[in-house]
Amino acid sequence: MKQDLTLTVNGVSYTRAVEPRVNLGDFLRHDLGLTGTHFGCEHGICGACTVLVDGATLRSCLMFAVQAQGCEITTVEGLSDAQAPLHPIQQAFRDQHALQCGFCTPGMLLTVVELLDENPDPSEAEVRDAISGNICRCTGYQPIVDAALQAARTLKGGTR
Amino acid sequence: MARQIGLSVERLEDPALLRGQMKYLDDLELPGQLHVAFLRSEHAHARITRLDVTRARALPGVHAVITMEDMERALGRVRMPLSASPTKATAAITPYILSGTEVAFVGEAIAMAIAGSRHIAEDAVDLMEIEYAPLPVIMSAKDAVPDTAPRVRTEASSNVFNRMHVNYGDIDAAFADAPHVFQEDMLQHRGCGHPMETRGVIAEPRMDGTMNVWSSTQMPHDIHQGILEVLGLEDDALRVITPEVGGGFGPKYCAYPEELAIPAAARMLGRTLKWVEDRREHCLTAVQERDQFWSLEIAVEADGRIRGLRGSLIHDQGAYALKAVNLPYNSATAVPGPYMVPALDMRVIITFTNKVPASSVRGAGYPQAAFAMERLMDLVAQRLGLDRAEVRRRNLVPPEKMPYTKPLKARSGAPVTYDSGDYIASQKEALEAAGWDGFADRQLEARKQGRYIGIGLANAVKGTGRGPFESGTVRVNPSGQVSIFTGAAAMGQGIKTTLAQICAEQLGLTADKVTVICGDTVAAPLGLGGFASRQLVTAGNTVLLAATEVAQKAKKLASHMLEADIEDLELLDGKVRVKGSDVSVTLAELARVLRGSPGYAFPPGLDPSLQSDAKWQTEALTYSNTTHVAEVEVDVDLAQVKILRYIALQDVGVRVNPMIVEGQIRGGIAHGIGNALFEQMIYDDEGQPLTTTFADYLLPTAPELPRFETLYRDTPSPINPLGAKGVGEVGTIPVTAAIISAIEDALAPFDIRIQQTPVLPETLFHLISTARARGLPRP
Prior knowledge:
Helix content of chain A: 25-40%
CATH class of one domain in chain B: Alpha Beta
Strand order of the largest sheet of chain B: 3-5-1-12-9-10-11
Structural class of chain A: alpha+beta
Largest interface: A-B, 58 and 54 residues
Shape of chain A: globular
CATH topology of one domain in chain B: Aldehyde Oxidoreductase, domain 4
Oligomer: heterodimer
Distance between the termini of chain A: 52 Å
Largest sheet of chain A: 5 strands, mixed
CATH architecture of the largest domain in chain A: Roll
CATH superfamily of one domain in chain B: Aldehyde oxidase/xanthine dehydrogenase, molybdopterin binding domain
Structural class of chain B: alpha+beta
Strand content of chain A: 15-25%
Distance between the termini of chain B: 69 Å
CATH superfamily of the largest domain in chain A: Beta-grasp domain
Strand content of chain B: 15-25%
Number of helices of chain B: 20
Number of strands of chain B: 29
Order of helices and strands of chain A: EEHEEEHHHH
Shape of chain B: globular
CATH class of the largest domain in chain A: Alpha Beta
């Protein structure tokens, strides 16, 4: 039995009928076609499917879509317009070679968004702690840490 | 010619990845696609006594349920073909496309449900009624060897799949009269590849009888061949495409039952089918490297110089072989590593067990070889009272002996020849960076404060660039944009950017003017794909040759059009220009001329298209070498290991894109650290996997890893035009050996010898507790 769901994703309001057992990530990916959110484990450990729900990171594999009624969601597609320059965090990831296969990247980006919202000047250890719930098999994390630190400097208005 | 090779060019792949616009397999939605879920064995070994899918078929939304019987009726076969480079295997060793009578590991596919959504397909699997009669289970490769052991599969005449004897030199003489002989038994386990994107397949049967298949694989051409063989399609009736691949690391090197079952079922139903592996399925069904039992003896002179090495290796192959078994051969032949070993005698037994099949994970048998050899080097040093680095130095192949040919053969039959590199200087440089000489003082100082710090080192070589070839076509389009079509497989490593750089340099362009098309059997009908740290060497040299030819052709045409001598022309900024003048013609114009005009002839001596096709060939491997030094601190009460410093020196030849190389090396080290300290695929005695989530199977996360301190020596390979050596696996090879050497050094007061990898905290806790019970460390 489908239920009506209204929510905002990347500033756009959507209303859809959705089965209660469909999780938020599947809804974003397959109902809305926002395939930038990826599933790495579907059991809440790897963090690849992280999105922002009302500004806070959340694993979209662990939340049913219908639970997001009235919520404001941000996915990787909401960080920058396709024709616009990259978001400073995205740019920092590119500059630092903080992605290889790119599969964990959307979750990493949104985790860093939340970190820098809460703590604009994190230490390296704080960055490592903040991304400890996101698994990357490619990079060894060091460039992701460096990208977060670079983005922090950029967002504060300093030079890169 | 504008320089591109050697620059850390921004990756062409990144913008779409960063914006979430790149399409991985599960991001593809085909019209009318149905979804597949598999019924998988719950037993490690059992006969299937009953399978009733009536209720599953009746579930609304279910389009079909397919069992082995259905598959056999449609295909006339039930087994997988043995894909590329088959060994002389006579026994039935490949997995079943679907199993219907007997299952030999937990996770083996039995039936497939096909429905309008994955949810309904999984509901249907739950409605399948199956009963099993359990059969004896063999979990340890050691237990599989005796003739009296129950069979892993009742069809097998023996659990021993193969025996190999790798030997050279006079091993008896090496051990007779040897001043010292030391012995060590080791258990090595390497776990899973775990790319963040799991496997997945889409098969689209088309009205005209052709089929498109998308698969998240390192080997589209292998899969193409396998599907042709099983479905009986003609070559041109099948196109295999790899979309963006979210990491390979080995598990996507094999062709799997699902990659045949889904196209076969799609053809039976005339419908497009999609299956995406979930993480639990990946743990159950994707290849792993798992267990090797090593028993080694080393004979040395009084000064630690190696006289000979002998021993045995039992390799856990799992229930079937998806491919020719390469890991134990790699391991046995790679043991001598960067050292001079005058005599070698390795006996290898490959046994089946009731576990998922084994095949390559990043490193493919080399890390185990390095671990075995480096543990022996430490043992020799310890017993002879020598510095660990000095024992190694005395045995490393010195630079004056390069190229150094070992009396061994690679799989191709070509001799194993280390082509270049200065191993002694590499070790020296890494040790200096790590402060090796001053470490003993720091260690004593730390111990006074109750801290246990240790340092360890490991050397390794890795054969890279496995041939025999890779394909590549370079074409300048009439727009001026350049296309490369190659059989190389992009799986996240940045190969597209690297190939674009190589091409761009020859054509006087920047890399962003080049588009690379990988992983499409129509765009590049010939190709081998991604494995053995091979693609920069094989595809890179192919692209170099093709782009050079295109440049020559461009100059030839320009010479005609500009009425200038070829020698006076240069390629710059997308143009062919008369040197030192403004007279030029763009590559785009040249491409338009060579596209042809109806009825007009080409200029003399020129043929259609500004394009070239190359297939650089090689039989030999090119050897990268590396020295790693790890510094760790062990909390002896909690048995926790903290990596304080990690120094990694590599010689990977010419680095086309140093940034990408650095990324590959760091990722490789992180994988090795997982292998040393965290990653273990654990089964109970009945063959039930216990580590099927990321909460149970631990991958390294950011807080556990240090900053890596990397160093490079760029000795060009003399055996390929680029001077390149492979990179992808190199960072992983020596890591377990270096880390465990460091842990052992930290725990020297406890007199602990570590003979296994990984060393999980519980293992270390047990070792420390046992030592403490013996009264160690002494006050």
